């Protein structure tokens, strides 16, 4: 029973395609198919179902086995890194889940410092929503992930990074342009673009604290769509400064009520993490440590 077959199955499920998995693993598609078929034959079970309409799915037994395969591969990665550490050789790959604003504003700062010290460590990045990152952590697809601290992250080990202030965003020609601080009461009659999911709870908390009922013109999930709608003058919105300050075509301002979201790196278990992951978390913490 070779570990490469475990790697093949996990990669097929990760990318959802035999062809893409073969490309990522630098193998032929027939070799990928043969490896999976040989493992199914050896075990006497079917692990994957191929459906032309629905794509590739795990069987019931496949769903039970896949997490154990990932655990075996992760443990082998840890063993290889420990051996490399003992012989002063650095090897390893870190799988990181991230959301768009963390990718552009936080990740590069950490990578710049980390790669100066550990240039041979490789990375695989997975960009998605908060919910997807949590799911990837639970399933073992990623080693660590950028998250916003809330109830969904309580089961993970966290390394706090920054406090991301909630700000207001508006069109450059909006009446709020010359205001240093926008009063929440001023939003009473403003057409408002409400974010759904993501940071919606923070926005709703602000309105509740101010005792203001927003005039919700649109409810939108995608952050970039929200920014584009603000750019077109369709309304104002409230969101995290980390993301909104990267949008060059809109303006942002402070609110008279302060609300933060706390961005952290999450790991299933820091004590059980590989040496490379532990070092990355250490570098990340020092990167954003604030002087006291």
From TrEMBL:
The keyword Ribonucleoprotein does not apply. Coiled coil: none annotated. Gene3D superfamilies: 3.40.190.290, Winged helix-like DNA-binding domain superfamily/Winged helix DNA-binding domain. GO terms for cellular component: cytosol. Residues 1-59 form the HTH lysR-type domain. CDD domains: PBP2_LTTR_substrate. One of its GO terms (molecular function) is DNA binding. Pfam families: HTH_1, LysR_substrate. Keywords: DNA-binding, Transcription, Transcription regulation. Belongs to the LysR transcriptional regulatory family. This is LysR family transcriptional regulator. The lineage of its organism: Bacteria, Bacillati, Bacillota, Bacilli, Bacillales.
